[in-house]
Design a protein that fits this description.
By secondary structure, this protein is of the alpha/beta class. The chain has helices at 5-11, 25-39, 56-63, 75-81, 119-132, 148-156, 162-174, 191-200, 221-226, 228-239; strands spanning 46-50, 67-72, 88-91, 104-109, 133-145, 176-178, 185-189, 207-210, 253-259. The longest helix has 15 residues, at 25-39. Pfam families: Methyltransf_11 (PF08241).
């Protein structure tokens, strides 16, 4: 996917590799893994991991027996991902996938949709995902929820800083997050907005799963994740309310899943 110089500069700092591997980011990782393992077709299915970063999800998908191809716009990410045994990794644009029609059983968009602020670009990415997946195949996309910045900056204490506060409020009001710290623009969805975009791309009937629920805002969530017994309870707790409509927007991230009908 084509990204702005600001986005490339941010990811060139190599901050993404550990984001889902440590701290509270593991909650997003394990919940994404949990939902996908319940919704993906059985291996060996062909998975196209678009915007797959350094291969954090590709690694477990390969271990589960899937055939995985990773595309990412950041050269550093592709270089790192290429070192994962069995993974095919290449530079790629979510809006122009270098794959044949119906060439995949699954297309994952676990990042691209919040890096394209314009709806037209998001629609191009979703339509490309639909084109690339076979009839009956799965398209799954992650999005950031509309009020995530307000929730997160209050949690972190940075809501006290006027630039952070104004950016978070603007994202809540209009969806466009211009991060004063990360230096790039992102798009934050309302949950029902994601379903509408899926439907307009020819992917109706999408199911939605709140990934973190309210638990990403708990001060001791990393301690729960460090303890296998407590981690199991925490993941079970969120699974029990993952698709409750009144709670979908509390998660930092939402996973939306649909099958191509024909």
């Amino acid at each position: 996917m084509t990204v702005t110089p600001e986005v490339l500069t941010y990811y060139a700092q190599d901050l993404e590799h550990d984001r889902l591997r440590e701290g509270r980011g593991r909650l997003e990782f394990w919940r994404t893994q949990d939902v996908l393992r319940r919704t993906l077709p059985p291996p060996p299915a062909r998975v196209l991991d678009v915007g797959g970063g350094t291969g954090v999800h590709a690694e477990w998908l390969l271990a589960d027996g899937y055939e995985v191809t990773l595309l990412d716009p950041v050269p550093l990410h592709v270089e790192r991902a290429a070192g994962v045994p069995g993974l095919r990794a290449a530079l790629g644009d979510a809006r122009r996938l270098p794959v044949p029609d119906q060439g995949a059983d699954v297309v994952l968009l676990l990042g691209p949709l919040y890096h394209v602020a314009e709806r037209a670009d998001r629609m191009r990415a979703l339509r490309e995902a639909r084109r690339a997946v076979r009839p009956g195949g799965l398209v799954a996309a992650a999005t950031i929820n509309r009020h995530a910045a307000v929730l997160d900056t209050v949690h972190l204490g940075t809501y006290l800083e006027e630039p952070q506060r104004e950016a978070a409020r603007a994202a809540a009001a209009h969806g466009v997050m211009r991060s004063p710290r990360r230096g790039f623009t992102a798009y934050f969805h309302q949950p029902d907005e994601v379903c509408a975009e899926f439907a307009d791309a020819g992917l109706p009937g999408a199911a939605q799963y709140g990934l973190e629920g309210p638990f990403w805002l708990y001060g001791d969530v990393a301690d729960w994740l460090d303890d296998p017994a407590r981690r199991t309870l925490l993941l079970d707790a969120q699974r029990s309310m993952e698709s409750e409509p009144s709670l979908l927007g509390v998660s930092g991230h939402l996973l939306t899943v649909a099958r191509r009908e024909s």
